[in-house]
Amino acid sequence: MQNEPSYLSWFGIVRLALVQTALGAIIVLTTSTLNRVMVVELALPAALPGVLVALHYAMQVFRPRLGYGSDAGGRRTSWIVGGMATLAGGGVLAAIATALMATQLFAGIALAGLAFVLIGLGVGAAGTSILVLLAKHTHPSRRSTAASIAWILMIAGFILTTGMAGYALDPYSGLRLVAVSSTVSVAAMLLTLLSVWRIEGPRSSGPPQAASPQSSFKDGLMAIWSEPQVRRFAIFIFVSMLAYSAQDLILEPFAGAVFAMTPGETTRLSGLQHGGAMIGMLLVPILNAVLPPGRGRTTSWIVGGCVASALALFNLALAALVGPAWPLRASVFALGVTNGVYAIAAIGAMMNLVDAGHRDCEGTRMGLWGASQAISYGIGGLLGALASDCARSVLSSTSLAYSIVFATEAALFVVAAYLAIWVSKPASARRTLDLPVNVAKRSA
User: Fold this and answer.
1) How many percent of the chain have pLDDT more than 90?
2) Whether residue 194 sits in one domain with residue 263
3) Number of domains in the chain
4) Is residue 137 part of a domain?
5) Parent domain of 163
6) How far is 53 from 27, CA to CA, in rounded Å?
7) Suppose 305 and one of 125, 156, 342, 387 were both cysteines; which one would form an S-S bond, judging by CB atoms 3.0 to 4.6 Å apart?
8) How far apart are CA 112 and CA 357, in angstroms?
9) Alpha carbon of 274 to those of 158, 245, 336: distances in Å?
């Protein structure tokens, strides 16, 4: 008999969630600070950091395989530590590559490509395993709150790192960039080691909790994909993240083009949105704590978050048509709050569902959802920017172009709300939508 995992105290949950802070600290430097250095200090095309960040997202397709590896070993700690070491090494290498671009452009770009591959693999390995470990060692009644804690601490990592690194990087030099990145990576690695130290407990004296030795990764993935709820939840994640991320790259250009805001004002506008998202993430566990318990609450939060996000995006579509007279800051803050509610409810559902279905496949299952989330996020940001460019090239009105894009994103959130209800319905109610997959499986 395998030992059931012991549940973490609140202190243990916070301690383990600090790994998310370490992840956020390195990620924000590589996807934000290095982006700015390449475009501003080195005067390189904005497409270059865009391609590098897209490469990091492309590596997320390996999340199911990385999760399967942690399933096969039966323990997650080594995958978290190994993933963070890979991420930290990639972060330092990315800073070195950026500094090298100033004198040897093509060598620096090639080195940056390798660095962002390592960053993507490190995030996939550590991020997948930390969520599985947190879900399995957290009591079901605390999982939604644990998800909120983990994501709030990751945002704290963003804020803390950008604030401290911003001061440390002035005046800018390539050497200073490498020193700051190395310091952040070392600090993140030490924080990770302290966070996971003895958190998983000793290995069971019984047989190891591992995937069946005759089960290959392909067989294991197909078995996971054959679980209707896993498949439906992956589809929901993909569609909802398209809606969530499509406004990511166009919100600041929209505010500048339609509301004549300066770069500093649009940056503060993004900060207002992130602040709203944090409030939304806090709102869910607080209300869950004070409201009487009830069935289907997670689904209700997800559906409510999706519908509210759709209304907030329709609000921005109207703002684009009305122009400067519209209270834009209030609208953007509302979008942040509603997005925060949706995001934390979806992550809570992911943690609750990770141990449903085939046993000892939690890493593969979480990896599949993580891959769906990351790939959709990357595609969504790109499609949002492309849709905006296309609409402006076809339409004579810039305001109308942005309005159409925001309205389309709102419609995607409405579809996502329907899919969330679909996920929670009994299997008999979903037979029609599941039929193509089942037919394909029988014909295989």
Assistant:
1) 32
2) no
3) 2
4) yes
5) 1-200
6) 10
7) 342
8) 40
9) 11, 13, 6
User: Does residue 210 lie within any of the structural domains?
Assistant: no
Q: How far is CA 436 from CA 222, 250, 301, 442, 444, in A?
A: 15, 36, 29, 10, 12
- What is the pTM assigned to this prediction? 0.77
Q: Clarify whether residues 285 and 171 are in a common domain.
A: no
d(CA 52, CA 380): 16
Could you report the per-residue pLDDT of 97-107, keeping only the tens digit for each?
999 999 999 99
Cα separations (Å) of 362 from 122, 238, 403? 19, 19, 41
Of 173, 200, 227, which residue is a domain's last?
200
300 and 348 share a domain?
yes
364-397 residue pLDDT tens: 888 888 888 888 887 877 777 677 777 777 777 8
Residue 172 lies in a domain: yes
Please provide residue 355's backbone torsions phi and psi, each rounded to the nearest 5 degrees: -105, 15
